[in-house]
């Protein structure tokens, strides 16, 4: 974050403000962890901060300190709109273009407020007056830690905030193993532990929450996996009927896409998940190495993200979408196999 933006933020926060903090739609551990940590921080500094999420978030995040106060724009629409409209400042965390908040996009676009972006995805758009955008960062949570550091306030990080920040760094780095995990990420984690973060407990709460039906759904997903050796690619499909059969709950498919990459030689893994209610397939893309799933998702599936992890969507059926997907691969054969 450059000095000009740090100083602008300091000036903005020098008097008490009404603040709304917004994560992306279908928020994950990093989105919820970063918004909660920032919300705790701002409220401890005499601001009036609330989090407005575009929609609900998975059960395995519902232990996080402060999560019960998060407004759900879909379910608590008028209260959410009011919080956004009254806000002197809107922080947008873990996304970088306003299309990422689903039905909330129009409301955000219509606001007369000061936007602050904190995000680590590629190709940010320019809606925010104050920007902290860094694609080399492991997670938005690591950036919230840095932001508090830039404001000279690390000592205000309490145990609740430390737990929130730890969670997002852990989930976005695949438990500290993805490439964006730097020595600095580990230093931040060490400091958070000194400030009370409970690493073992957090791992347990996030990863040891399987229900029998989720494991059966995983079994179904793995059975459905198609391996295209010629392209070092593996993809999974899950239909709405399959999700219904195994009593799908939000968050149940988290991490399924990664199984493709555990196959030797596979560099590109994809999962297509039908969502009848929204009339779309939600797609997750993962890669190892230089193959950019951000570009792939952006070019063909109305999405985006990072080089090795991105998302997108399709309005066609599963079979039409996978046929289209397979038709794209020859064009990428060299980068997938070289
Ligand atoms: P996931 O596959 O876990 O939903 O998302 C992987 C990464 O891509 C995350 O960083 C997420 O924020 C981003 N992402 C997921 N879906 C979309 C999308 O539709 N558009 C964009 N631009 N990014 C997405
Ligand atoms: Mn993130």
Set out the fold topology:
Layout: H1 3-12, E1 18-22, H2 29-44, E2 48-53, E3 71-72, H3 77-86, E4 89-93, H4 105-109, E5 114-119, E6 130-133, H5 140-150, H6 159-172, H7 183-194, H8 199-207, H9 212-223, E7 226-228, E8 233-238, H10 240-245, H11 258-261, E9 268-275, E10 280-287, H12 293-300, E11 304-305, E12 309-314, H13 318-337
Parallel strand pairs: 1-2, 1-4, 2-3, 4-5, 5-6, 8-9
Antiparallel strand pairs: 7-8, 9-10, 10-12, 11-12
Helix pairs in contact: 2-5, 2-6, 5-6, 6-7, 6-8
Bound molecules: guanosine-5'-monophosphate and manganese (II) ion (MN).
Explain what the structure shows:
The protein is α/β, with parallel strands linked by helices and 338 residues long. The protein has two domains: 3-207, inorganic pyrophosphatase (n-terminal core) (Alpha-Beta Complex); 212-337, Diaminopimelate Epimerase, Chain A, domain 1. The chain has 13 helices and twelve strands. The protein has helices at residues 3-12, 29-44, 77-86, 105-109, 140-150, 159-172, 183-194, 199-207, 212-223, 240-245, 258-261, 293-300, 318-337; strands at 18-22, 48-53, 71-72, 89-93, 114-119, 130-133, 226-228, 233-238, 268-275, 280-287, 304-305, 309-314. The strands form two sheets. Strands 3-2-1-4-5-6 form a six-stranded parallel sheet, sandwiched between helices. A six-stranded mixed sheet has the order 7-8-9-10-12-11. Strand 4, helix 4 (105-109) and strand 5 (114-119) form a beta-alpha-beta unit. It is globular, with a radius of gyration of 20 Å.
């Amino acid at each position: 974050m450059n000095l000009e933006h740090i100083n602008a933020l300091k000036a903005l926060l020098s008097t008490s403000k009404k603040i709304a903090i917004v994560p992306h739609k279908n928020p994950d551990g990093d989105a919820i962890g970063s918004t909660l940590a920032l919300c705790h921080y701002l409220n401890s500094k005499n601001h009036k901060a609330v989090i407005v999420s575009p929609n609900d978030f998975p059960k395995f995040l519902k232990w996080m300190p402060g999560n019960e106060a998060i407004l759900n724009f879909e379910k608590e629409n008028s209260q959410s709109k009011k919080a956004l409209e009254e806000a002197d400042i809107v922080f947008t965390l873990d996304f970088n273009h306003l299309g990422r908040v689903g039905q909330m996009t129009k409301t955000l676009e219509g606001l007369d407020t000061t936007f602050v972006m904190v995000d680590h995805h590629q190709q940010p758009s320019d809606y925010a007056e104050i920007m902290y955008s860094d694609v080399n960062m492991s997670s938005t949570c690591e950036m919230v830690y840095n932001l508090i550091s830039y404001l000279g306030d690390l000592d205000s990080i309490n145990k609740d905030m430390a737990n929130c920040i730890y969670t997002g760094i852990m989930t976005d780095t695949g438990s500290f193993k993805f490439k964006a995990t730097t020595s600095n990420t580990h230093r931040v984690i060490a400091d958070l532990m000194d400030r009370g973060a409970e690493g073992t407990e957090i791992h347990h709460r996030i990863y040891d929450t399987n229900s029998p039906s989720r494991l059966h759904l995983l079994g179904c997903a793995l059975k459905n996996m198609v391996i295209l050796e010629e392209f070092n690619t593996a993809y999974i499909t899950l239909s709405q009927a399959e999700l219904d059969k195994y009593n799908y709950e939000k968050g149940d498919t988290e991490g399924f896409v990664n199984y493709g990459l555990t196959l030797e030689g596979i560099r590109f893994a994809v999962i297509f998940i039908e969502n009848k209610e929204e009339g779309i397939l939600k797609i997750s893309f993962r890669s190892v190495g230089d193959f950019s799933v951000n570009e792939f998702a952006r070019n063909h599936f109305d999405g985006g993200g990072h080089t090795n992890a991105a998302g997108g969507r399709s309005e066609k059926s599963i079979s039409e979408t996978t046929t289209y997907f397979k038709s794209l691969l020859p064009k990428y054969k060299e980068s997938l196999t070289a």
